[in-house]
Write a structure and sequence with these properties.
The protein is built from 22 helices and 14 strands. It has about 575 residues and is an alpha+beta fold. It has four domains: about 10-55; about 80-270, no CATH class; about 285-345, no CATH class; about 370-520, no CATH class. Strands 1-2-3-4-5-6 form a six-stranded antiparallel beta sheet, with helices on one face. The protein has a four-stranded antiparallel beta sheet with strand order 9-10-11-12, with helices on one face. Strands 7-8 form a two-stranded antiparallel ribbon. A hairpin with a 2-residue loop joins strand 2 and strand 3. It is elongated and about 90 Å long.
Length: about 575
Amino acid sequence: MMNSNPQLTPRVIRLENCQVLFENRNVEKNSPPAVSDQSEVSTVSSDESLCADFLQKPSVPACSVNDSATNPRKRTVSEGGDERPFRLLAQPLEDKSALPPLHTYIRQQIEVFTVEQADMDQRAPGRKNPIRLHQVGLRCIHCRHLPQRAKRAVCFPTSVARVYHAVSDMKFDHFSRCAGLPESVRAKLHQLREGQKSYKKHEKKKKKTAGKSSFTSTAQYYHDAALLMGMIDRDGGVYMKNHLSPLKQEDQENSLTALTLALQNSLPRAEPPRKRAKIGSLTTPTLCDSTVSKMLLQYQMSPKPLFVNERPRMLQALSPTVQSRLIFDEDKRRITQVKLPYLSPKKIDVPQVNTRVSLQSPQTSPATGVILLSSPRDEQYLNEIHCFIRKQVEVFAADASDVNAPAPGRRQRIILGQVGIRCIHCAALPAQQRLKRAVCYPPSMKGIYHAVSNMKFDHFTVCQSLPTNVKARFEQLYSSEKPQNTRVRTIKGARASPMGQFYVESALSLGLVDTETGIRFRSPRPKVSKLPDMTGMSALLFAATDPTIRDVYFQSKSNRTIEKAHT
């Protein structure tokens, strides 16, 4: 019986007529198929060439995608006569306004499905964790019927936040190798990839001028869109809310099921960056920005001065906008929009001794003006080649000749009094005759270690001013240096410390300090007894953080103790 469904296209009707001919071929070879309408007989006879091709070729699962007029996201794929519905990841209207064109098109080629028993029985050699029944997965709609598929044809995100990363992996690894991808889709993807660079440049300019984007990032949009589709996090992966079984009592605190269901109809879109910054500042109160307050936080009586209530683990995946809508039990502590007084330390007015050096304050260097970088403790914490290099490097304060010296590759201008390091063998040479990295100006004390390492590789290997014995010793150490020999060498009873940290502590002992304009020599250190505010907790704080006044503090404290004992 011919199919007379008026909704089918003429081509589909003709293919069904061919199928009827194929079934009745052995019964009535010479007689035409019995039909009720003469027009259908003429249609079949006029399409004999199409039927002949169909009858000669073996039956192959035909993948014809039929768009649904009611829901463009729900489609069906016919595989050998079996139509299986699937749901696209794409949201046509929202994607077009919030995502780049490439992501918008990629999402139209990916379906969202839930794992069935047949999916669990399939082999997956590279999969780390086994999949579970009803777990949510993503797969390509073009090769879903193929027995052998290209890499990343199917992905199972471990959380809703990983949906974006799964799609990105499919974009890079799968669609360029997909065997079932139509040529028109392949050409469209290639065209969109070529235009991706220009789109990114346009979006950067657009955000700078407008700053009113509906979504803060592509990843945030993927997360919010997945929540709106009904995806929620559960132990073991992502699930659809309609496939979830009731939660056990012990699992309710670590799951977002109830929270997501309650907020499903009221989830707001991701806020613009400016509003997001305001929400973030209200959620987490900002403490004092002064350096003294930051150091005082280390001496709080409570080990967790900013203790936050123990929220469910999966709640951290939600955006701050959604988190602000949630209401927790009153008996649990939480950070509110009001700054609690016990969270902020008391302000102490003390002179800035070990924080930042004012540009107007006079900078003083040692009497000689130049000191060696090496110290007697180097052999306890550094390897042989670093100990040797530090003896060939000196610390100096830039004078007028250093400031005016030509430096073609230097990014920032040198300021009078700024501290630098240089090779002691090239120091007397004119600036034009010095080789590469003979002089370095680290931006901070943490950069001294990297500056010395660069001098070791770039300068001392080519330095022409090295004495013969020094050069021979350096070549010996440089050639014998291996990864196992570069570790920090310690002696028995010495405290192990990384080389970078030791460089900072050594610089502090030399009287160096970080400033906004680089490293400087510290001003003559004041005596604790002459500072009216340097008593009690303030003096103890600076003695603990400033090794240059530590001895003075404890000496003055012992003197005061002796005086009180005599009185």
